[in-house]
Design brief:
The chain has helices at 16-25, 61-69, 73-85, 100-110, 165-168, 187-198, 224-231, 254-263; strands spanning 6-12, 34-35, 40-42, 45-46, 52-58, 92-96, 118-125, 131-141, 150-158, 174-183, 202-204, 210-213, 218-222, 242-250, 268-269, 273-276, 285-290. The strands form two sheets. Strands 1, 2, 3, 4, 5, 6, 7, 8 and 9 form a nine-stranded mixed beta sheet that branches. The chain folds into two domains: 6-167, 2,3-Dihydroxybiphenyl 1,2-Dioxygenase, domain 1 (Roll); 169-290, 2,3-Dihydroxybiphenyl 1,2-Dioxygenase, domain 1, CATH 3.10.180. The chain is built from eight helices and 17 strands. The chain has 292 residues and is of the alpha+beta class.
Amino acid sequence: MPPLPIDHCVLPVARLDEARRRMTALGFSMAADAAHPFGTGNACVFFSDGTYLEPLARIDDELASEAMTGGNIFVERDNAFRAQYGQEGFSAIVLGTDDASRDHQRFVEQGISAGAMLEFSRPFADAGGKAAQASFRLAFAAPPGWLGSFCFTCQRVNPIPFDRPDLTRHPNGVAAIEKVLVAADDAVSAGRFFAGFAGSQLSERTDGLLDVSLANGSIYIGAPAVIREIYGIRVEPSPGPKPVGIVFRCSDLALPKAVLEREDLPFEETHSRICIAPGPGQGAYLLFEERS
């Protein structure tokens, strides 16, 4: 089986309107708010390659509580993340799949399953305003004792069509998620987990990071000090591996730089990268790297 691709990143937020203000100020175009049938909701940022960001808020406490009582792993893990790290952050790395059931069985056999699969649908409107249903099937994974953060594969059973150029064109020039950064005191154990999760191999880079290659990018894993030295990311102590940053492919660094300067938002720049520290509505480090 070839390695799975990055599908999206889940970014818990306290409120979707605050996330919308922040992400728009950073130069991202955002889709309309959408509600899940189990008490959470999102306002997504879609990219032209099919990857996306999912700012996620808890919008109906009663539905969320019922979902947790019923064993909904997605809501349980979101709740655990917020209890552990607060209302904002980077909770889940999601890979795309064409068979979540197969993944779930694989996770069970590897001893990394985080619980029962989840299948759900939600309404959406297409580019012409016609109502339809999007359906998804999720398979969850996490190493034993990993609190808060989690991973899952997402099978788009009835996918939302990415035929909205207004949503995939971003003033900051971002075209895709290229890498996800994970900080871990025991980087080797974390790397082995991610390699098993992705169906990939673990390799060591010359800069001290471990690389799990994906079909459309990579997961980089490293000790907090190494992550900070290379990317300038300041990592808070964590009881386990913690996703901390998202690296985007950008056609020209002048584009995000112009947006950030216009919005008077602080950033750090090197010769090939722009790094934005978390702020209200943005719980993860966001990095832009120039790629043709």
